[in-house]
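Quick one, probably user error.
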């Protein structure tokens, strides 16, 4: 990732977390309703830049997630990453990845730091050979933070490491590992009446 783009992403993440921590510190003084409970369903979509770890390339994805909380600290999460149109000079031409896994959250009232693992699959095409559309297994590690500011929305920041490899390219290293950076506004809804 170019240094100015990295700085922009890092600055955005720092500003988001400073805003979250400031809000958190201000609301800590007063008693607030707790939103993180079993039955909470969360979702969002955002534009995410990525660093390819095996090449000096930056890609942009439309990413989305949906997550259902099965316990106060544990949730099941599904992610989708769709590669936006890419230059012909880049390694990836098309890529769509799906993953389903488990998250564990460390909670402080309505603030959560979470980690997770999700196996999945991708359908990839490389500019090296555009005739090959390859179905590949993927593995995703996730770390992030969220602050639930109201029963219907939250702010979040996530970093995903995604391992993937194309195997059918002749004499070309097919490694396609990426770091995905996401920040944004998420929406949530309590599905259990008893916890509304």
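Nope, works fine. Designed sequence:
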């Amino acid at each position: 990732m170019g240094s100015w783009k990295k700085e922009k992403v890092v600055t955005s993440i720092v500003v988001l977390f400073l805003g979250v921590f400031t809000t958190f510190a201000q609301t800590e003084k007063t008693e607030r309703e707790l939103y993180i409970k079993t039955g909470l369903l969360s979702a969002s979509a955002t534009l995410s830049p990525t660093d390819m770890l095996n090449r000096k390339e930056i890609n942009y994805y439309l990413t989305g997630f949906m997550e259902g909380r099965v316990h106060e600290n544990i949730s099941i999460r599904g992610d989708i990453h769709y590669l936006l149109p890419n230059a012909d000079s880049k390694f990836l031409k098309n890529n769509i990845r799906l993953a389903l896994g488990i998250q564990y959250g460390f909670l402080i009232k309505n603030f959560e730091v979470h980690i997770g693992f999700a196996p999945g699959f991708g359908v990839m095409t490389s500019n090296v050979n555009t005739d090959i559309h390859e179905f590949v297994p993927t593995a995703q590690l996730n770390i992030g933070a969220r602050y639930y500011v109201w029963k219907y929305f939250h702010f979040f920041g996530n970093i995903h490491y995604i391992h993937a490899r194309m195997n059918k390219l002749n004499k070309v290293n097919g490694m396609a590992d990426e770091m995905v950076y996401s920040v944004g506004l998420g929406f949530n809804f309590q599905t259990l009446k008893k916890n509304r």
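Residues 43 and 66 are 4 Å apart (CA to CA).
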